[in-house]
Design goal:
Blueprint lengths: L1 E5 L6 H12 L5 E4 L10 H11 L2 E2 L3 H6 L10 H13 L2 H8 L4 E3 L3 E4 L15 H10 L4 E4 L6 E5 L4 E4 L3 E3 L5 E5 L13 E7 L4 E7 L3 H10 L4 H9 L2
Parallel strand pairs: 1-2, 2-3, 5-6, 6-10
Antiparallel strand pairs: 1-11, 4-5, 7-8, 7-10, 9-12, 11-12
The site of fe (ii) ion has 7 residues, from loops.
Length: about 240
Amino acid sequence: MRYAVFSDVHSNLEAFEAVLEAAHKSHIDQYLFLGDIVGYGANPCECIAHLRKLCPLIVAGNHDWGVVGMTDLDYFNEEARASLVWTKEAIAEADRIFLSQLKLVQESVRFCIVHGTLSHPEEFDYMTDGQRAAKTFYLLEQEVCFVGHSHRPGVFVDDTEKIYYQVPKRLDIVKGRRYIVNDGSIGQPRDGDWRACFCIYDDNASTIEFRRVEYNIHEAQKKILEAGLPRILADRLSIGR
Ligand SMILES: [Fe+2]
């Protein structure tokens, strides 16, 4: 099976459509979505509609839960809070029901998916260091755990003797090792590269490939400003931070 693994769309329709086109050309069998379809951007309804059509295996992000009142708004910074209040008004009741029914963790035979960490998925911690990676590896029953949330693509590897971090363009899965793979972000990358980021996981070839896709960033920025959302949410897209 070939999986497109993606997350953190954040209502950025231009970035999402560019990634969907790239995925479509890559002969994808199934989609894995690691959370945060909404928040920050100006097209939450359209992004939710595209996502639902894909019938992905899906988990909730903090913004998805925040917009339906399942994560306290105090968790978020000022700009994120403003965008969630705006999003709450923008989406339909059916969208609210869809978001409120998302689970925190989903598992398959060879992989699992979660937005933040396996140790406290409901707290939406960031997978930023070896200690947090070790706690997730302790609970991980499969060879790969896909995570999002930090908006920075990268991989923690457990080679049974130590845990180390790398930022590869392509990963060959080695038998006996385990991996925590952050797929980056489609709608608001924070690794200094403005292009939308996602992964293609091939479980027959045992490979994970990181892809970057250019999109119409000016249109996405224009819509954020026209919606009256905080200017920084438009500006930061250009620098990928
Ligand atoms: Fe996010």
